[in-house]
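During the reporting period the student researcher (J.K.) took over the structure-prediction task from the postdoctoral fellow and processed the backlog of single-chain submissions. One of the processed entries is reproduced below for the supervisory committee.
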Amino acid sequence: MKIGILGAAGRMGRAIADAAPAMGADLAGGVDRDGAVFGPYRDTAELAVGTDVLIDFSTAEALAAHLDIARVDGGAIVVGTTGLTAEHHRLIDIAAQDVAVLQSANMSLGVNLLAALVEQAAARLGPDWDIEVLEMHHRHKLDAPSGTALLLGQAAAKGRGVTLSPPQHDRNGARSEGAIGFASLRGGSVAGDHLVVLATEGERIELGHRAETRAIFARGAIRAAQWLAGRPAGRYAMADVLGL
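J.K. obtained the following structure tokens:
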């Protein structure tokens, strides 16, 4: 299977390139955020034609153009770019009518299993159980709460059968019953720590995941691409890869 990397010179792009050989994926080439092309292709469109699956870890601003290219080529695309808005998700839904698209805020298999556990816990516990999502990343990460924290918050909301309210980041003061809160920490070179706390009077449950290296996200993205190759048009998630 041939993969092409969008955002090839970034941290995740380099990690995917390093992980590909051991996972049996053929790296056909890549395109950097500034348009620089790696491999025997002149631009993103040529890269899409020469690959089975594109893996996008570029920028949210570039996503619309990348989805259009995937639709024209008819190839699959894995979207791992974070910081997406409701409009980005609308564009993904449109593209998924013509091409297989797998989008996830976190490509780690462990994190996506954690999301399933959070959903189950929230479904079985009442609104008297407060839910807090805590995340910590390296000092350079811009979006807060992180895409993964929102993924976990959405899982909790789904378990409760409610819509996740806009996150009130690092809000002080009392929580209303049934609220799902978020807190973000930044510092050092932390790849990604996430903890979901479900607390009620006299007890609490803590469900968490710690990423020790970006390689786990790279391996998850490649596994997602291998699973997605040859799938019919539609929108998929890492839960589909895991068979959840």
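The committee noted the following: The mean pLDDT is 93.
J.K. will present the remaining backlog at the next meeting.
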